[in-house]
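Entry 14. Structure prediction run on the chain below.
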Amino acid sequence: MKKNAFIISCLGAAMIPTLAACHRTADRTHDTVTETVDVAQPEVDTVVLSNLYPGYLTAKSSVDVMATVSGKLLSKNFQKGSVVKKGQLLLTIDPGPYRDRVAQAEAALATAISTRDYAEEHYNAVKKALESDAVSKMEVIQSESSLKEAEASIKNARASLENARRDLGFCTITAPLTGRVASCPFDVGEYINGGASPVKLTTVYDNTSMTANFAIEDTRYLDIINTEGRNDTLDFARVPLRFDEELPHSYTGSVSYIAPSLDKTTGTLKLQCHVENPYDELREGMYVKVDLPYGIRPDAVLVKDASLGSDQLGKYLYVVNDSDKIVYTPVTVGQLYHDTLRVIEKGISPGQRYVTRAMLKVHDGMTVNPRLVK
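Output returned:
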């Protein structure tokens, strides 16, 4: 037994150096195994700088349809939200009382004309009689005065008739333009007191084109002016428009108005873009973001937007240095370009390499096997 124990002890002592050597070999093997990661170099391209500005849409034109006469609503001849043609019958207010007023005004005019005719004949007669001293000059003057009063009465009667006919015409309400009509808050049979004060019945919107209304900072306006002074040109005829919910079609606008003065309170300048609406998808009051260009950068540094990480300090990239080690690199980012690339304002230069994928597998100071991809 003692002999066996001695043999085992000798074997154990002999194996210790061997195990230590194996451990050191394993450590060296672990040190040489590196993670393969995809890297890319920043692109350099000419980028049109732009900024998103919130705004809202207004229709090409909109007209409130008003009731200016009083009476019972007899009919509504449209479906709310439908397209109506200019001159199309929309509503009818009871015309009965206004027909009576027209008849009364016509009778008053006929009476005035008859009175004028009699006064004219009488005036002519007394003028002739004055030649033979059959009447006094005072009678001629009185006759002439009666004729003038009769002529004035005709003018008043005609004005009253015109007003009565106009009010009768207001009982039939037609579309002032072609467009979509809003709902009417009144039901058939309700009394509308439009004679006392005009009452809004509905609104018709011409949505064939829209206007995007927004405002920019005064400093941004100066950027635009400075860019226009160089050989570079900005396209203000096709400014992209964006919506919170994606629409079936994309839209661009043409800058059609720049306010002549700045708002002193906000330091902003009002702008408008004309937007065609061929698919009738846009509506008045819709919220819109106008992607307005303000400058051109001919040598912008671009990286894949998906390669950027975020932490409490902001945005960062994992850059691979010349020793193939990962370097945590904070960057200052600019706008998105072509939906997948991001402008880098500061932090990385052309020719450097940055990790594009598997960023969770790498960390600062780690040695990697970089694989360059496009």
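Residues 4 and 244 are 84 Å apart (CA to CA).
Filed with the rest of this week's runs.
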